[in-house]
Recover the amino acids of this structure.
C-alpha cells in the first residue's frame, strides 16, 4: 500500500514547503506545478521523478488518489521544475509496474518496499 493519506496531509502542510527547496535541484526529485481544478490556484508539489522514454516518469508514492494528479490529468498539461529548469509536459498517463523496473536500483528498492507500484508518464510539450 502506498504511503497513508494522513502522512500526505501532514507533508502538504509541513514537509513539502521544506522539501520543495531541495527538490528543484536534487537528482530524482522535482516540482510539479499545477492548477487547481476548481480554484484555478497554482500549486507546487515535490515529487520523485526520472527521465524515461523521451519524457518524465513520476512515482506515485501516495497512490493514484492525489490532488496534483487529478489536476494534471484534468488539464492535460502541466509544468515541471527540475535541476533549475522548468519544462512543459503534456499527456500525463498513469501506468503500473509492481517491480518499479524503470527506477534506478536503490530507488527501485524503496518504491517496491512502499508498494508504490504506480507512476505517471508525461512527454515534453512541443
Amino acid at each position: 500500500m502506498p504511503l497513508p493519506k494522513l502522512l500526505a496531509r501532514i507533508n502538504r502542510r509541513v514537509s513539502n514547503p521544506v522539501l520543495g527547496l531541495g527538490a528543484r535541484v536534487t537528482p530524482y526529485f522535482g516540482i510539479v506545478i499545477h492548477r487547481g481544478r476548481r480554484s484555478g490556484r497554482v500549486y507546487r508539489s515535490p515529487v520523485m521523478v526520472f527521465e524515461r522514454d523521451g519524457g518524465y516518469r513520476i512515482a506515485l508514492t501516495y497512490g493514484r488518489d492525489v490532488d496534483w494528479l487529478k489536476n494534471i490529468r484534468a488539464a492535460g498539461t502541466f509544468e515541471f521544475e527540475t535541476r533549475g529548469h522548468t519544462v512543459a509536459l503534456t499527456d500525463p498517463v498513469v501506468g503500473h509496474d509492481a517491480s518499479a523496473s524503470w527506477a534506478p536500483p536503490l530507488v527501485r528498492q524503496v518504491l517496491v518496499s512502499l508498494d508504490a507500484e504506480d507512476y505517471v508518464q508525461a512527454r515534453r510539450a512541443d
Remarks:
- Residues 5-124 form a domain with the Pnp Oxidase; Chain A fold (CATH 2.30.110.10).
- The helical segments are 5-23, 67-75, 105-113.
- The first helix runs from residue 5 to 23.
- The chain has three helices and six strands.
